[in-house]
Amino acid sequence: MMRCVSVLALLLALALPALGQPLDIVVLGDSNTWLGGDDCSKPRGWNTWFKEALQPASCRSYARSGATWTHTPATKRNLVQDIGVLGDDNVVYNQIERLKEAHEKGRQPAPQLIVVAAGTNDAWFAEKRPHAFDKTVAQAFTQQEGPAASKSVNEVLTLAEAVRYDCELLMEAFPDARLLLLTPLQSTAVTAELISRTGDIIEGCGRKMELAVIRMDHDGCVCATDERVKKRYTYDGTHTSEEGARRNGYLVAQRVREMMKTE
User: Partner of 74 at 20 to 30 A CA spacing, among 23, 108, 247, 259?
Assistant: First the structure.
């Protein structure tokens, strides 16, 4: 329990200083981000507290419950689906496509920061994404030209390729934006081994592309062992309670401040 609390208890007690220039921020991800709502205002989503801490110029979520990084052979561009469960088109790629369309139509400012928090469902529903772990990070980066330039979306079936694919799409569409990847939180529904394996791949891809990564399974407040005994930072072992969302949101905000200070 103390591992989960130590840093975040301090963050909760501190008033975070303002960033020099308010940022336009976009968040993508799965249910733990979707819980905050598209406008990042609902207290069970980490992004709500992240927004409160940073006071950005704008903060918009394109996250959807059930989303995965990985695709299937049936995945296609789909701007309207909102099913809230695992699905061929419920992937981060389509959140990116919605973001791009919103920007092109003037509904979304060009973001200076894009945070992607996904991977839980890739680990949780591995039987529905049977090729997710077929390639290592090294194998996904063997070619200088990435999958975003050489493959159709329905050919990108592994987690490592999907992370590279999506990040390359974001970097092409928003070249001035900083990207931050959050690995999955610990969960009572998924083995620690699978969560760690998923996090290792996301972190490895981030390092290859020189992107910032936060290992939420290491640094986030959710400890699966503790949640099995008594729910505190989640309400079901996977999805954050208001307290868990607050602590994680403040953690991510603090890391963003540190990241921006290095520029």
Answer: 108
